[in-house]
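Schema walk-through. Below, the input block comes first and the output block second. Nothing else is stored per chain. Lengths vary across the set, and this one has 163 residues.
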Amino acid sequence: MSSPVTKDARLSQLNPQSTAQVAGHPIHAMLVPIPVVCFVGTLVTDIAYWFTANMQWANFSVWLLSVGLIGAALAALAGMIDFFGDRRIRRIRTAWIHAAGNAVTLALSIINVFVHSRDAYTSVVPTGLILSAVVVLILGLTGWLGAGLVHRYGVGVQAGERA
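--- output ---
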């Protein structure tokens, strides 16, 4: 029978580890909800603007996009540290798709913040609204893949924890 210490050591070797962490908690996983909420909120406020033409909704969209981009940049940095910090993560095809999808989301959101900086109706309809919807759809896919990385492959799961 193996001791618990030996079993924990074996488990930590099986799972790809999060390199960017605080007290054993992956930073990427802590930061990801910020851009997700902001980008989904942008879609909601874009739809509200589309229906009401109240400029305040477009202002909300710009603020949500701006905060979302800051959060996304920080989450991307932590994600890249994890991705390049453990070669076992890079061996997982899902990790590559997750990273590429999030890079596309970040690029589209940067374009979207410039679109939203225009005046009046053209700041949202139709381009801003379409970009916001595409970003949310891609986030749904990359979020699903990110959860799969944790639950299927144990990425970032520390020894003794359950995904």
